[in-house]
Design goal:
two-stranded antiparallel sheet; Rossmann fold; 10 helices; alpha/beta; 7-stranded mixed β-sheet
Length: 224
């Protein structure tokens, strides 16, 4: 049994491109909207926020809801997620999902697992219709609200840090840099742009390719 004084252990993970192999935004851009980068260029030029850029693209989707859910099902979500979640919890690790994306498609994949105790999700709210696309809403009632990206992963990580808590973080993109730097290098999991940015800063991290590698690592090395 875990004693009351044992450290709490929390894995905060990004979703798109981290928990999934494919980023929902990239799938939408490449498969549904062609090579239109005008909105993204506006974001890069500082004219609009990261949230406004994603929301601008998502509201252009005009698939049937069934077709869009099918696309979501092709993002490469871990096939053994339920088992991995159970194994993490048995090793006293809790999972928290923190995303600058939309809860609408995240929830589709989580619900499909039929979990008795699903992980906590911090993401932008949203709803979908063929007429109006995927409409994202800023989560202004969230304690982790950030006007630029919707959800502050940095805030999520900080909320779990304390004298008697361990926090690990996993991510793959530029918005994951700040939260990644808050955790110890041996609990910092990175791939893609995040791995490159950390390397440029001379910061250590644990590289990964598929999210499934992270639970195995935490259970093997950080479960005492």
């Amino acid at each position: 049994m875990k004693s009351p004084d044992s450290p709490r252990k929390i894995l905060v993970t990004d979703f798109d491109g981290t928990l999934t192999q494919v980023d929902f935004f990239q799938a939408v851009l490449e498969r549904l909207l062609g090579d239109d980068m005008s909105i993204w260029h506006s974001y890069c030029q500082g004219k609009i926020t990261h949230f406004e850029a994603l929301a601008g693209y998502y509201q252009q989707i005009r698939l049937s809801e069934i077709s869009l859910k099918s696309l979501v099902g092709e993002l490469g979500f871990p096939p053994q997620f339920s088992l991995l979640l159970d194994q993490l919890r048995f090793a006293h690790w809790d999972l928290v999902i923190a995303s600058a994306g939309c809860e609408w498609y995240i929830q589709q994949l989580i619900d499909a697992q039929n979990l008795k105790c699903p992980p906590t999700i911090h993401a932008n709210k949203g709803s979908y219709s063929k007429e109006f696309g995927l409409i994202m809403q800023l989560p202004k009632d969230s304690p982790h609200y950030d006007p630029n990206i919707g959800i502050s992963k940095t805030s999520v990580v900080k909320s779990h840090q304390g004298l008697n808590q361990w926090v690990a973080f996993a991510g793959d993109g530029p918005t994951d840099l700040a939260p990644a730097l808050l955790v110890e290098p041996h609990l910092r999991f990175a791939k893609g742009s995040l791995a490159r940015l950390l390397s440029e800063k001379g910061e250590s991290f644990v590289p990964f390719d598929r999210w499934e590698e992270i639970p195995f690592h935490l259970i093997r090395y950080h479960s005492k």
